[in-house]
Design brief:
Elements lengths: L1 E3 L22 E3 L4 E5 L14 H18 L4 E10 L9 E10 L3 E9 L5 E11 L15
Antiparallel strand pairs: 1-2, 2-3, 3-5, 4-7, 5-6, 6-7
Length: 146
Amino acid sequence: MKRQIPYHGWCFVCGNENPHSIGITMFVDDDGVLTSEFTLTEAHQGPPGHSHGGASAAVLDEAMGLVVWAAGHKVAAVNIEINYHKPLPLNQPLTLEARITQKDERKIFSTGEIKLADSTVAVSGRGIYVAAPKLFANVKLQGHGQ
């Protein structure tokens, strides 16, 4: 079963109050896998007809961090790595997937992929996240009672 991750106000990627937000709706399933289907538009253009690399990096940064948040951890990124395999076309459906891959004492690792309509991986990434309770002292984790 999937549950929608709440929108985050003024967030650049998934905010519903930010008129410049990419506006992505994300879901997490019972196995902790985050998914989304979305489309980038001319507002996200880099090379003609394709998205700016920063837009796809922002999407993966958000997804890889949110999958960790959805597991109940208030974290911040300390390192992200983005790999560009193919350009992302504008105005075409894209899919997003992120998951936690490893946890240790201080760090949580996650990965993410943006795929084209034919399921080809166009952009992939990995991130390292650490607890940041002071940074998010007034933020409640949805569905976790924290």
